[in-house]
């Protein structure tokens, strides 16, 4: 129907028709798939949700005399230093070290004077750097003939270091789970607090506006695709860890649980702290809330047919976290329209439901990306390679233990 080159030409002329995923769904309901496909050039999608498998690469620049860093703490959060001399990787879920260890803050100790500091993690430090704030850095070096310095302390900002970019091994889960707790005590998880006896339910994915649910077989998204990442421009770098495209799927090709994932990369110096927020889950640990948006070029009617998917057409499994196993029992599948209603019924009991993703900010990501494209400041890229569609999920073999 149209090519990517033709779409980019229209973007540069300022004549491209861009709609968010929500706008497209409403358009399809009004005039149908074929008419919408003729009208729309680009569909923008978005999410703002926790993505703890994220982190930042930092290059500090060399000291005088030079140092080969082997241990490093950025605002008290350990950074990995097993690369070149002053290259670091700061993981979003790494927690600050404090006297007595670096385990997640105990539930009963959350009101202590140093509670706020103890709840800081790599995600908070990344947010501070993106916001232009200064953070402290302490490093210990391995002394060699070419790197004679043994340690140093300083303060850094995003403008006083060389490279500062996000490289995230696993972002944008294509669907996820709904967490509940059928046990008799509260559980503190990566989905937040789950109350006993099915006291609440939490879901993470924003549903029908989520990027990968609008391109279920990743026909439009591949390695090299340009995206909105944290308020700046990023790219799809590779398949994400735990990428599982062979997950069971509905006839509309959307998966019934966690499926594909993407590894993402982008210049953090160009990002906006509005879209990159450190967070802490009580009793679990640190994480990172991240805004990601992906534009989908309308190359055929099939693109619009996939983007027409509604929340009632998408399902997720209700998983009981009270069973401490990798494979937990489920209470069946529930659709996202039910989840977003704020309540669902499990075994005859009405259960309150809340999203972990910000549905408002997920919409705002798609709207902001739409503005960029309409302004001609963001064009689309051809993928240089496809994301593999044949990956199975391989669990750890524990037989040797």
What features would you highlight for this structure?
401 residues, HcyBio, 6-stranded mixed beta sheet, alpha+beta, globular, Homocysteine biosynthesis protein, 26 strands, 17% helix, 9-stranded antiparallel beta sheet
Secondary structure: elements and pairs:
Blueprint: H1 4-13, E1 18-20, H2 21-31, H3 33-39, E2 42-44, E3 47-50, E4 55-59, E5 69-74, E6 77-79, E7 87-91, H4 115-118, H5 122-130, E8 135-141, E9 151-156, E10 164-171, E11 178-180, E12 187-189, E13 192-194, E14 201-203, E15 222-223, E16 226-229, E17 232-239, E18 262-267, E19 276-281, E20 285-293, E21 295-297, H6 301-307, E22 315-320, E23 330-335, H7 336-340, E24 343-346, E25 349-355, H8 359-374, E26 385-386
Parallel strand pairs: 1-2, 11-22, 14-25
Antiparallel strand pairs: 2-21, 3-20, 4-7, 4-10, 5-6, 5-8, 8-9, 10-18, 11-14, 12-13, 15-26, 16-17, 16-20, 17-18, 19-20, 22-23, 24-25
Helix pairs in contact: 2-3, 3-6
